[in-house]
Amino acid sequence: MALEKFSTWIFYISVLLVIATMYTVAFVNRKELSVHEVLTNLAYDNITKTIFIGGENVLLKASENLAEHKRQATGPNLDYVDCYHDLGGTCAGENRNNVNKLLLIDSSKRRLIVCGSFNHGVCQIRSLDTLEVETNGTDYVVSSVPLQAEALITPSVKSSGTRAIYVATSWDKKYFKNPLNFLNPALSTRVIDELMNIFKPVKDDSSKSYIQYKENVVYYAKFIYAFSAGIFNYFVSVQQTTESYKKCNGACSVDQAIFKTFIVRVCQEDEVYASYMELPLDCKGSNGTSFNIAQSAYLTKAGDGLAVDGSEDVLVVTFFKADQGWSGPSQSSAVCIFSVKEIKTALVSNLKNCVNNAPDEEISLPWFPTHVLACEKEQSTPTITENFCPTSTFYAYHPFRGKTPLTKRSVMQYEKGMLTAVAAMPYYNHTVIFAGTDSGQLLKFSVEDEQQQVDPYSELKISSDEVRRIIVTSNQQHLYILSKHKVTKLPVEDCSTSESCDRCTKPNDPFCGWCTLYKRCSQKTSCPSADAHPLRYVTEPSNCPLFASISPEKVPHGPSIELTVKVSNVPPLAGLKCFVNGKEQKPTTVGPGNELKCQTPPEKDLPSITSDTGDVWVDLALYSTESQLLFLVKKLAFYSCPAIKGCINCAEGNYSCNWCTYLGRCTSNSSVDCQGEFIMPPQERAADSKGCPQIIADKSLFVPAQVNTSISVPAKNLPPEKGVASYKCVVTVDGSRKTSVAYRISDTELKCSPLEYFYKASIKKQEVKLEVIFRNSDVLYTPNTFKVYLYKCWVSITDCSSCHVEADADYQCGWCKSVSKCVVQKACGEGGAWIPPTSRCLTKPNISKVWPLTGPVTGGTEIEIHGSDLGKNFDNIKDSVMVAGMKCYPDQTKYQPSKRIFCNTSNSTGPLSGPVSVKVNKIEGKSKQLFSYQIPEPIDFNPKKGPRSGGTTVKIAGLKMNTGRHITAMVAGRKCVVDRAKVTNNSISCTISRAFSRRKRNAVNASTGVTVSFDGFTPTGPRGIFVFTPDPTVTSIEPDEVFFGGGLMLRISGTNLDTIQKPRMYLAYFSPNGTTKLNITVQECESKSSTLMECLSPKVPDFVGNVSKVQVQFLMDADIPLRSNYTSLTMIPNPFFEHFEDNLFVLKTENLILEV
């Protein structure tokens, strides 16, 4: 038992140390760059290891460890989103954020390509060093739609060797009609190497190097990934299905349309998109569910387990399921893997079906300018090969969408949300996949066989926002992870956090294995001679090295003896040494079957024994002369019977020791030390032999305080008293020990002689410590579950009913009538008239408080009655509560025995008053307070108008307004929340509820009156109507510059400003590190008229001194924001004054004009 306790503590300490180490290593290895701007794109320079980050109105350059080096603002800008440009002032412009949509490094020319949402998606060439603009494009490339664009730079015409940038982009409804319907091709080939024609289409005459949707066709598509393989460029897209397009006929919104995932392919030699083909991709879940919407994708080389040959490219795609729309959210996602070879084969198969005149195949897509043609109507029969690449528009079968999808079974399903980003890499036999989620998690999982579904082997929290992009560095050592406001750098593996073989190999992390002789978790390449023997580097828990056996298992603390040690899963034993307690033990000999023999240290070289268990633990370890490390360690116990304290540790422990019952000592030679009077270990006992005496924890003991009481203690194996070997009880209360003689009733029961026990605290019960001592020194073993409590019946009890109802079943409490106190019977005395819980109390109910004290004559008021002796159960009072002589109906769900009754009044014939009475067991108690039935009279209210959004506090005046418990009000058809604490006999105040939606605000047009209800009774009145006015607005602020020190009077012009009772304003700004939006203390304003209000500008804290602008926000009543056309103020330094020299300044001029 002692050994088990020790092992448990060692386990908990080990777990804590491992967790602490894991968090420390993870923190050290993680690098982060946080900003307040919204981030959208990420690019990694393989040459300089530099990171480029694009976001909303910002472009950043950072080092490989994410130290910010450069920052360029890219917006906001004046933009014309509904036309080509200003068009002579006929098109309204507005300040718009510039969202980065494309960020691409042109490695061969060492430059950065940047495209944003500004000006319908024009692009720029920027310097990789400074981020400065080098060339501005003028063509509209990626649109202003807030969906990502994808691009890649590849050869454009194979024979000439020129390059082009291929761009795929998305659009919304405004681009489907004039004047914007020819701005943004879905897919285009653009000039990249000629500065004069930069970003222009390679061809834009009768033959066009782009695919564009025809005029006035509403067709939805978005692109999520682009890659090149061989002579082809591929784009992963999500598009409206042909069936959905035909059914909608241009009238569906994105959320109503039905979508599928398609991969688009174009030949790099094809400048006119004659080779444009589409193939549907389908990802099937384990139960046959079709995941139809691709969310992210990544091209990688396959690990050896997936690759047909060592260089096969595979496309990893994350999907989710959506019956309509393409945005989610979804709680179920999946990952599928498509090899590029499979994609090429499926495209060829679909096209061959068409060329071979399959009657159900069609040539063109639903959006193509010409009508849809059936394959069988074409007469040409081109030869279709794997690398078929038509380059002329005379080729008839284009653009082509395959009908038969490429379907794959998912390799992983995720049921906690959406997989929003993905990256992958090969590692030996594994294809390792890193997936980000919409909740900011990073999942890691490994695929060897795509026919088997896998689970993540690691899940890390990256951000509170969705993961948007993941990049694997060129050396495949690190990940860069983009989230909404942060970029994070992590190693692809964190093997070093695992400090044991078991923890290293259990997660099935493909990067990690246990380097046996070097006692570390690492990648295989970091383990010396890992392939020299299978057990030098192991990846399965079953192959972890361990001590198979040690003989003898328990070593006496004394002379040196020989240990025989057998080990498993250890490489050949040559070069190994045996260490005990940190010292080499010679000689160490190697026997057959992984067996070693080594000597234990003599007693003088071992630590002394200080524990009650009589043992000391030291390390038994194997030492490798190759690694010069103790690579395998196990705790070994050395014991001494005479050093063991207590019978349980001795005879019930882990060693072959005996306990001398009447001598009170542990021995290994009981036949000599205490013949016939000893207790043996369990494994040596006869069937009728007894073990150590000990207390049994079958139930808790409850002992009444302040009463002379004996205590019966359950036990087992109690030896008879003999000579001085007797028993006593020791009870420790509040640090004080009280000792009493104890008597052995039997071998299973002990009784402590009567004593009176006290505890100071005014609480119902208090746990105390009870010890049973034998021979004046041996404390009987007491399990931790054995509990003894002292209790006081009278704490928090003031009446008989509470005494009976609230006393614990384990207590022996009753009501002592002579002293009016809840006590045990013994404390009440012989003639004290003690009433047990099974008897009636027959005491008078006492009513101390009644609320409310008024109610309408129609009844229905819920009254709360407080007191004592208000019945022991609901049946005692259910028909015996009266209010002013009228019946009141108790609520059983709210009844609190003896202390509280809730009842609902019945109606009365008219106004009247009287006490509240409760009758229990025919004994009646009455309240001193009187309850009144009355009729409230609302007369008038103010104000008579307020804004539609609500928040106005209305005061309703009248007579007897403080009537009933629940008072509600309606103002012009809207709920008005009553502040019950402020209700008086003469008035009620209520606040008109807020209208959150525009529809509800616009629906408030009528001007109607005010009604008040008192516990369901609605009297007539008050007179007058309440008018809802349009919400106030702010049209100007003067001045628009304010001091940091505050105190400047601002004149706020607007409309309906006099309908705000307590107008307020506050300023908002970003914290110095730019990550947190902070508010400056709210400042009260004053309405001067319907068009004017005045506010003092608040003081801006000193640390905001680098802020040039702050946001200003006005609040109406109830903290409702007020609509304002002015949202910012300019911050200027505080004015200062300089003293005149000699207190005099002479101004030499003919005219002196002072302007104020």
TrEMBL record:
Membrane-crossing residue ranges in chain numbering: 6-28
Boundaries of every Sema domain copy: 14-492
Source taxon at top rank: Eukaryota
GO molecular function: semaphorin receptor activity
Mode of membrane association: Single-pass type I membrane protein
Entry-linked PROSITE patterns: SEMA
Keywords (A to Z) from UniProt: Cell membrane, Disulfide bond, Glycoprotein, Membrane, Receptor, Repeat, Signal, Transmembrane, Transmembrane helix
InterPro entries on file: Ig-like_fold, Ig_E-set, IPT_dom, Plexin, Plexin_repeat, PSI, Semap_dom, Semap_dom_sf
Claim: Zinc is one of the keywords in the record: no
Gene Ontology BP terms: regulation of cell migration
Pfam families with a match to the protein in the record: PSI, Sema, TIG, TIG_2, TIG_plexin
Entry GO CC: plasma membrane; semaphorin receptor complex
Annotated localization: Cell membrane
Family, per entry: Belongs to the plexin family.
PANTHER family noted in UniProt: PLEXIN, PLEXIN A, ISOFORM A
Name under which the protein is recorded: Plexin-A3
Upper classification of the organism: Eukaryota, Metazoa, Cnidaria, Anthozoa, Hexacorallia
